[in-house]
Amino acid sequence: QVHLVESGGGLVQAGGSLRLSCAASGRTFSSYVMGWFRQAPGKEREFVAWINRSGTVTRYVDSVKGRFTISRDNAKNTVYLQMNSLKPEDTAVYYCAGRSGVVVRITPSDYDYWGQGTQVTVSS
What are phi and psi of 66, to 5 degrees? Predict the structure, then answer.
């Protein structure tokens, strides 16, 4: 069982940066692959980024490539999402999620554990 808590969201102007954190409870964090998803009002939850258990392999949705970076610190049981050059279309509630296994998963229903979400608002 993993309990996830996101933090770091807020209001930022277009072109600005935010760093989201997701703290996990439990002693098995390093055995989970982690993902970041986002959900804008009236839209479905969408995949943003994925990282493997050791933090050596990452994947991104095309719309954030070159702007967002996912990373993790297994000693701190935390996964991060550094978001640079933010755009108004990045406005959403951002969620971290975890699951066991090693394969890249981009579908929300593939994940077993979810945080409560943190709001990111980018003003133009």
Answer: 85, -10
CA distances from 18 to 7, 38, 43, 81, 89 (A): 10, 14, 22, 8, 15
What confidence tens digit (pLDDT) does each residue in 60-115 have?
A: 999 999 999 999 999 999 999 999 999 999 999 999 999 998 899 999 999 999 99
- The rounded distance, in Å, linking the Cα atoms of 86 and 90 is 7
Residue-level length of the chain: 124
The separation between the first and the last C-alpha atoms of the chain, rounded to the nearest angstrom, is 40
Q: For residue 72, which phi and psi values (nearest 5 degrees)?
A: -145, 155
Rounded to whole angstroms, what are the CA distances from 51 to 96, 116, 118?
11, 19, 19
